[in-house]
Amino acid sequence: MSQEEYDQLPNTITVREFRVNGTDFVTTLTDHKQFHKKEMSFLYQQRWNIEVDLRSIKTHMGMEMLSCLSPEMIKKEIAIYFMAYNLIRSIISQSAIIHEKIPRQISFKGAVQLIVAGATTLIGMASRCIMDMANTILLAISTNAVGIRNQTPQPRAIKRRPKPYPLLTKPRREAVIDLENQYAT
Fold first, then answer.
1. Rounded to 5 degrees, what angle do the CA atoms 123, 129, 134 make?
2. Rounded Cα distance, 67 and 125, in Å
């Protein structure tokens, strides 16, 4: 934020605090008639789905580390991950509709595993059997339910295990030269 943008901000802001089911909420949406506290609480809980969805894309689909180098290719790589995510979510929704389930109650990770396993099986199948197998996969996806999630706060910590080697924090060529210089002395 530039100094000019900062100077345009107000010196004070008005906030509204409310409690729903023992949880305190604070918002700048102060009109309690237009923004009911139960609806605000529901929207906040839905916000958690965004966190879970981003985690699913990063961990279950392997987007923790991007492999491209140029900004254009990184944008394309991220777009591919989002397209794959949306495709998987649409398959989950299709499965939920057919088997009368709620899509958010179906495990994303379980669906990814079933789709990958099913796709490799579908490749070698005769065309007349593909629809039966696809329906079997949709049934399996719908039976893979998410566990009951508690609403307790969770730690924001990285579970990733440390590697025995340090991170490469400079261009590889420089690191090689430094290593060669280190062994030369």
1. 70
2. 33
